[in-house]
Structures are given as C-alpha cells and as structure tokens.
Amino acid sequence: RNFFTKRTKELKPAVQSAPGWKLFGKVPPRENLPKDSKIIQQEYEARTGRMYKPPAPSARRKNIEFEPLSTTALILEDRPANLPAKSVEEALRHRQEYDEMVAEAKKREIKEAHKRKKIMRERFKQEESIASAMVIWVNEILPNWEGMRATRRVRELWWQGLPPSVRGKVWSLAVGNELNITPELYEIFLSRAKERWKSFSETSSENDIEDAGASVADREASLELIKLDISRTFPSLYIFQKGGPYHDLLHSVLGAYTCYRPDVGYVQGMSFIAAVLILNLEEADAFIAFANLLNKPCQLAFFRVDHSMMLKYFAAFEVFFEENLPKLFLHFKSYSLTPDIYLIDWIFTLYSKSLPLDLACRVWDVFCRDGEEFLFRTGLGILRLYEDILLQMDFIHIAQFLTKLPEDITSEKLFSCIAAIQMQNSNKKWAQVFASLMKDNKEGDKNHSPAPKS
C-alpha cells in the first residue's frame, strides 16, 4: 500500500509532463515552443562566450556599387553558384545594356523636367499677359467703350481672350440689351416661375409634367423639364448639381426665361448657355444677357426649331466648308454626312458642352465680338484641326468623334486653325452668302406660289 501510494505521488508530476512522449524519444509539444531568433542568439553567446558576427557579403557583390533596386538592375547580377558563370563578353554586354537603360531613363527625366519648366514659363507668361490686359480693359477700354470697341487695337486684344475679371462685363456690353429688360422685370418672371413650380408640385405627376412640357399650347409647362436637365449641366463641376452653390440660381434663370418667352419655352442646351453666363455675371445680369443672346437671329432659329432657317445656316456653312477644306468636304459628301449631325449640338450650346470650359469661354469672347459668323468659323476651325484624322474615318466614327471631341484640345492650336479659315467666297462674306441664300429661297417660294384667282 505504501509502495503504491509513494509511486503515485512520484508519478503525479511526471504525468503532467507527458512522460509517454519520452519513451519514443520525443518531447512534449509545450516543451518545444518556438523561440525568437534574438533569444537563441543571446543563449548561444552566454553558453559559448563568443559574439555572433554576420557572414561577410558574398564576393559577387563586391563589383556592384549599389544593391539592385529594380528588375532592370538584375542584369548586372552574377548567376547563382550552381549555374555556369558569365563570360567576360556577356558581362561586358550586360554592363553596356544597363548603362544604356540608365542613360535613357536620365534623358526621359531631363526631357520631362524641361517640359514642366516650359509649361510653368508659359503659364507665368500667360498670367502676366492677362494682368497687363486687365489694366488696359479696366482703365482704357471699358470707360470709353463705344468709341474704342471697333478699333483695331481693341479687336486684336479681344482675339487674344478676355481677362476673366472683365469677361462678364464685356459680354454684357457686346450682347447689348435690345429687349430693355430690367432687374425688376426678371424678379416678376421669376415669381411667376415659382408659382408655376408650386402648382405643378401640388397637382401633377411626373409623367403628366413631361407630357405637358412637350405641348406647344403651353410652353411654360416645360418649367419642370428644366429640373431634369440641370443635373446634366457641367456634371464634372458639381456646382450645378442639386445641393451645389449654383443649382438654384441656374434653375431660377431658366425658369424666369421660360415664363418670359413661353413661345420658345425651355429647350435642351439652354442650361449650358445660362450656366456659362452665371459663372461670369450676377443673377439679374446673367438673365438679361441670356434673354438678349437667345433673341439673336441664329439662336432664335435654332431654339425655335425653325427648319427652313436652320437649313439656310447649314447651306451657308457648306459653302465655306467646300472653300476652305475641299478634300474633307468631298469625304463627308461621299458618306452623305450633313452638317446637322454635328453642328446642331455645337450651335445649341455655343460650344460650351463640346469644348473644355476655358476654351469655350474664349470662343464666346470672339463670338460676342463677331456675331454668329464666328460660331460657324469655329466649326470649320475644329474640322481643320482634325482634318487628317477625319479623312481616315467612316461615317459612324466621324459622327462619334465630332459628337465627343478630344479633351486635350488647346486654345493655341484651335485658334491658329480658326485664324486660317477664310470667311469669303467669290468675294462674298458670310452675311452676303447667307443673304443670297435667303433671297433665293424667297424667289423660289414666289415661283411655287399658286396663281391669283381671277
């Protein structure tokens, strides 16, 4: 009894340390816990009294000035010991290839640095030019507007682009106010628009609103269609989106105009024109400029969808198209690609949707100076700029390309192409060509009119 009791007491700690593992030459799992490499190193140094020294770097690294930082540098590495060593010729060739790669990378870097410096120089030069031009506009031209606007000096300065700080003022003066609209009149039509919006929200469903908006009998009903279009206006800017700082302002200007001109109503494309004006003018001034701008013959023809007048504009455009770009004109003719496919969108939005905003504003600058002629001259400038590309395309690709122009188009390239366009045909200018087309149309109508009854 005592023997077994004692044996049990002796075995108790042994059972806890799992002695069965030792019978097979193993140690228990908890005795084999992994140790950190630093602890192992410290135990080794304490046991042997020696300090651990890392092995010297391999001899194959001695000839390399730096560790390879990319796969390109691996070309200089020697092969592993289990493979045949490189020959002298191969090593020299690899060194030459590597040196060429480094030289090419340095050349690229220097080229990019020069390009960045050039851009900065041009930007600085442009800012200086704008600053000096602004002084001239503010101190000399604007105080003497009527006497100086038509002078050669002012027209040349105008062509170079208006300084942003005076752009809105110059646009307002150039467009004029033939309609004699006052800020008070704007408030009256804005109040009417707000009443209409309120009545629509209370009585109409969205489908009813769209049907009403399409009705010719009540163009004011197109007020509700404005909401759908505002969110599509310069979507990348976000300032016209719902909750943005200019959303309600754009809504107000378009709504007031729809009540002011119910015979025209709201037409897609108007929101882009109003948005550009809002970015450059105060609310009431933007409305006055907007209403007067849309009252010009070309804009009125397009926004009222006057087909006969639109066809006259297209015909006049084709006269100058054939005169300036005969090869591209014949290419378009071979595919029966007519101007309405691409011009309608350009004219409706005055290029503000098709071109980058800063470039569109520069087009607006000269449009305010030269009138409708410049809109069609700009169209020809775009075709001239991309003539070589367009000559290689078929109908579908041309239509797609002109609907969405490249985003990297620059004002220097475009305006140099516009400057090269001659708006003269057989000694006739744009206004004369258009007037002759109108005259031919009227004579044609007379010839086809029924004979008077006896």
Automatic annotation (TrEMBL):
InterPro entries: Rab-GAP-TBC_dom (IPR000195), Rab-GAP_TBC_sf (IPR035969), Rab_GAP_TBC_domain (IPR050302)
Positions in coiled-coil regions: 88-123
Molecular functions (GO terms): GTPase activator activity; small GTPase binding
Gene source species: Erpornis zantholeuca
GO BP annotation list: vesicle-mediated transport
SUPFAM superfamilies reported for this sequence: Ypt/Rab-GAP domain of gyp1p (SSF47923)
Keywords: Coiled coil
Rab-GAP TBC domain sequence ranges: 161-371
Name of the protein: TBC12 protein
Database matches in Pfam families: RabGAP-TBC (PF00566)
Gene: Tbc1d12
Cellular component GO terms held in the UniProt record: cytoplasmic vesicle; vacuole
Residues of the signal peptide: none
